[in-house]
Amino acid sequence: MKPHYKPIPSESKLFKVEFQKTSQEFYYPWHYHAELELTFILSGQGVRYVGNSIENFHGEELVLLGSNLPHVWTEQDEPVTAIVIYLKEDFFDKNWMHSIEFESIRNLSVLMNKGIKVDPEVASALKLKFYELLNASPFEKLMILLQVLEYLSHNHKSRFLCGQEFTFDLDDTDKTRINCVYDYIQKNYQRQVSLADIASRLNMSEEYFSRYFSKTMKKPFFEFLNEYKINRACKLLIETDKQISEICYASGFESIPFFYRQFKKFKDCQPKAYRINFQKVLMYQPV
């Protein structure tokens, strides 16, 4: 995934609302932008990368992203449809947004620097508001948007995607290096990956690469690698009827007990429970 700066052109100096319904509209390579972003996934599924977080996503999901937080959604099997809101820098102009009336929204904007996965019940409650944004007048859009942000600012069930702020302030050399690591993991996760393998590709010693990756990505390399493998396992649990032992090996793990421990660490449940819970979600499709 090549890192890009994505410009967000808009007639409004405050915000932009987009209904993205094709692959060309939805997909943009690993990128960042100055605008804060609210993305409501309406349908489709895939893998979401935000900062140093890797997770599967599916419909009825709402994610909040801070300024310059790198991200990409990669869709699978079918096009993803989404309503995306971009909040421009002028939206938080100190002449009005720093007033006491907007204190909770201002605090929310700071928390978004870590990336936020909104609680499903909260996302469901806001779904109609997002649809209303598509056809409202410019003034009505502003009013609806403020209502959405105020509602989100008082929601305490959501969770952070990144352990700490992960803004894209890397120089071109770092971007190229991290891009190389991503590409290597995607192509080689099913075999045994060593520090020596990846460090040699970056012309680093194993020790230096280990320190470099932890400092840059805010987590150790093998934690990042295992998280990627677990998300591949989740995809197989959802999309196939394969035995869990088969999925373990297909995801690049060599030990079933270790696979179970890593799955519990990243998903807070066991693989069988994850599959059952997802099947329950598919059976319940809210209007």
Structure description:
- The protein has 287 residues and is of the alpha+beta class.
- The protein folds into two domains: 4-160, Regulatory protein AraC (Jelly Rolls); 172-283, Orthogonal Bundle (Arc Repressor Mutant, subunit A), CATH 1.10.10.60.
- It is built from eleven helices and eleven strands.
- The protein has helices at 23-26, 103-111, 120-135, 138-153, 172-188, 195-201, 206-217, 221-239, 244-250, 256-267, 271-283, and strands spanning 4-5, 15-20, 31-32, 36-43, 45-50, 53-58, 61-65, 71-75, 81-87, 116-117, 159-160.
- The strands form three sheets. A six-stranded antiparallel β-sheet has the order 2-9-4-7-10-11. A three-stranded antiparallel β-sheet has the order 6-5-8, covered by helices on one side. The protein has a two-stranded parallel sheet with strand order 1-3.
- A hairpin with a 2-residue loop joins strand 5 and strand 6.
- InterPro entries: Homeodomain-like_sf (IPR009057), HTH-like (IPR037923), HTH_AraC (IPR018060), RmlC-like_jellyroll (IPR014710).
- This is AraC-type DNA-binding protein.
- Keywords: DNA-binding, Transcription, Transcription regulation.
- Pfam families: HTH_18.
Q: How would you summarize the topology of this molecule?
A:
Elements: E1 4-5, E2 15-20, H1 23-26, E3 31-32, E4 36-43, E5 45-50, E6 53-58, E7 61-65, E8 71-75, E9 81-87, H2 103-111, E10 116-117, H3 120-135, H4 138-153, E11 159-160, H5 172-188, H6 195-201, H7 206-217, H8 221-239, H9 244-250, H10 256-267, H11 271-283
Parallel strand pairs: 1-3
Antiparallel strand pairs: 2-9, 4-7, 4-9, 5-6, 5-8, 7-10, 10-11
Helix pairs in contact: 2-4, 3-4, 6-7
